[in-house]
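Quick one, T. Sequence first:
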Amino acid sequence: MSEPEIVELDAIDCRLEHQPWRFAEENADAIRAHWQKVIEAKPASFNGKILLLHRWQIVERRFHGAYLMTDYASFLAWRDFGAPGEPRWNCFAMAALEAADGAFLLGEMAEHTSNAGAIYFAAGTPDPSDIDGDIVNLAGSVTRELEEETGVSIADVEIASGWTAVFHGPRIALMKSVRSPLPSAELKGGIERFLAEDERPELERMHVVASHADIRADRMPAFQCAYLAHRLDTWNRSQRTG
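Structure tokens:
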């Protein structure tokens, strides 16, 4: 797979289009067998409805995309089988949480989740709760996932107007910069107190990324490592010139 590509965007316009997904229809037996293995390993897994991007384009720094609706079992099989069939993309929004000192805060996925031990920004696969009419509200997904996973609300952060898209194979991460007025140590402490009060948190602990040395390529996906390196380099340049 090629290196992740980073593209700055001014806006996003994504919508739902109701249509079948050939992969899910033609591989129903294999999907059921795969899902059985998933729930045997992670009994808390839930086969709900999710959204999968089936076409997109960028016009004048604006990302236009169309999603179809499928179920989580079909999506997971498609992902684990290597994204076969007609081009489709796992396109999701992430809350790139930044502290006042320029460090980033990411969460380690809890043991009961499908990505246990991986370290991510707060995010979630788009689902029906993100749909408003036919619009897929990814900005709303960012703030909802951030608050649900970390306890940090929209009132606690400054939200950037634009987006940063990171393209890597069948993944498109739409990163929204959200900045807290708190230093990283204080922000981390507050989030971990929130997690300790949750009986079944999605995140187990928080990680601070303040330099390239803190980027964990063994536990972070390549698209996220690329984004962090890009943002840290931008921060460092601004401090030198500021």
